[in-house]
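quick one if you have a minute, typing this from the bus. theres a chain ive been looking at and ive put its sequence and its fold in C-alpha cell form underneath. please have a look and point out which stretches look like helix strand or loop to you. anything you notice is useful, everything is just below.

***
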Amino acid sequence: QVQLVESGGGLVQAGASLRLSCGASGSFFRNYAMGWFRQAPGKEREFVATTSRSSYSYYADSVKGRFTISRDNNKITVDLQMDTVKPEDTAVYYCAAGPAILSNIRNPDAYSYWGQGTQVTVSE
C-alpha cells in the first residue's frame, strides 16, 4: 500500500526548534518531488518547502532562513527542520509527494500522495 507517514509534531514555545519526518513506502517516490505543506484553521493549504527528485530545495518566503528540508533517497524520507518557530507557524503539516516540476512545484495540485498530517502548535 502506497503511503506517507509523518511524525514529529507537537507543542513548542516560540523560538524553539522542531523536526518533522516523513517516511514513504514505494521506491518510485525517489522519482518524485517530496515536500511539506501546512494548513491552519480557516485557511487554505499552503506550500512550505519541497525538494525535487534531484534534491534541489524550494521554500516559501515565510519560512526561508528558518526551516530546512532534506531528503534521503536511500531511506525514502523527507525531513523538515523547523528553527526559530513562530506562533504563525501553527498548523497541521502534511508530507506530500508527486510528479511536480519546477513550474508547479509549489502547487499542492501537483502532488499525488499525502500523509495524514501532524499538528504543530507554537505558543507565545
Remarks:
- The first strand starts at residue 3 and ends at 7.
